[in-house]
Amino acid sequence: MSESGESTLTVLLAGGVNLVIAVGKAVAGLVTGSSAMLSEAAHSVADTITEILLLTALRRSGRPADRIHPFGYGKERYFWALLAAVSIFASGAMFAFYQGFTTIFGEETEQTDPLVGYLVLVVAFALESVSWAQAVRQVVGEAREEGRTVREHLRLLDDPAPKTVLFEDSAALVGILLAFAGLGLHQLTGSSLWDGLASVAIGVLLAGVAYLLGRTNRDLLIGRQADPDLIGGVRSHLLAAPEVDALVDLQTMLLGTDQVLVCARIDFDDKLTAGDLERVCVRLANELRERDTDISEVFLEPVPRTDPALREEVLRRYGRLLKP
Predict the structure, then answer these.
(1) Would you say 252 and 262 are in contact if contact means Cβ atoms under 8 Å apart?
(2) Transmembrane region positions (predicted)?
(3) DSSP string covering 219-254, please?
(4) pTM above 0.85?
């Protein structure tokens, strides 16, 4: 299965699971009167909205380039994923905080039929585990293919869908345990304070996940550089060309999932004619695309390495020139 197809499967599975769980938690919350259960229902609703946004991202980001968007629509995936992070905070965390503080500082509420809540949470945990296992399988498999640790892969991942599903499903499993604890302590002590504290804890959990996902997609939208291994490969390939005297500047940017823009300023051999230079640039660009299929756009600019303004610009950005 392709990476895009795997992401779609992961998102669809998570969305279906969250929709079913949201209904069950909402019913259990109304029956038991538990604020933690209602917070978890809002959590699942937020996760369902997130999956809808991620599916939109997967569909719209695949559109081909056109005159208005010459580099394609790849970054639209990051825009919708950013909205998903906002959704987790706005419809999940804020509702959980409201329920928790209302319960803590409001009048004591009586718990009814806690068994219903326990049963719903157990079923929800089992269903969430299925979705979580699929997300883990995709992330671990991709990390193994890239030769990275899972933590490193999550940091460098240019597809927000599996990371978002993994984070939200992990938060969902922890949230279910928090709701279970709040429900149980309320039953044991007779105090709804524990239920409210569990709800606030769920809010903190969701706010943390929303922040992490929001920061990731912010960096991708701004224009993050490509994988360091890809950059190193491009640098080595260009410097190995006999026509290249020095690599003065190298810039990369993610245009979307598996789409990388490469811009290089090169000091070529002064013996090359204008025609030679044109043919060398075309050849090197094709070789870079063949070497790594993630490279979608290549721009090579012939420059003298001794130009003072250019040297100052590169030194200001990197602190050194990209020489052999």
Answers:
(1) yes
(2) 12-35, 78-98, 118-136, 197-214
(3) HHHH-----HHHHHHHHHHHHHSTTEEEEEEEEEEE
(4) no
Measured between alpha carbons, how far is 206 from 208 in angstroms, rounded to an integer? 5
Tell me how far apart the alpha carbons of residues 195 and 117 are, in angstroms, rounded to a whole number.
12
Write the class of the CATH domain 3-222.
Answer: mainly alpha
Residue range 228-318, CATH number: 3.30.70.1350
DSSP-derived secondary structure for 172-216: HHHHHHHHHHHHHHHHHH--THHHHHHHHHHHHHHHHHHHHHHHH
pLDDT tens profile 210-257: 999 999 999 999 989 999 999 999 999 999 999 999 999 999 999 998
Tokens representing residue 46 in the block? 């937020």
Assigned token pair, 136:
């883990």
Residues 6+ apart with CB under 8 A from 39: 95, 96, 99, 100, 175, 179, 198, 199, 202, 203
- Domain boundaries along the sequence of the chain: 3-222, 228-318
Question: What are φ and ψ of residue 33, in 5° steps?
Answer: 75, 20
Written as six digits, the tokens of 74 are: 């790849």
**Is residue 296 classed as helix, strand or coil in its secondary structure?**
strand
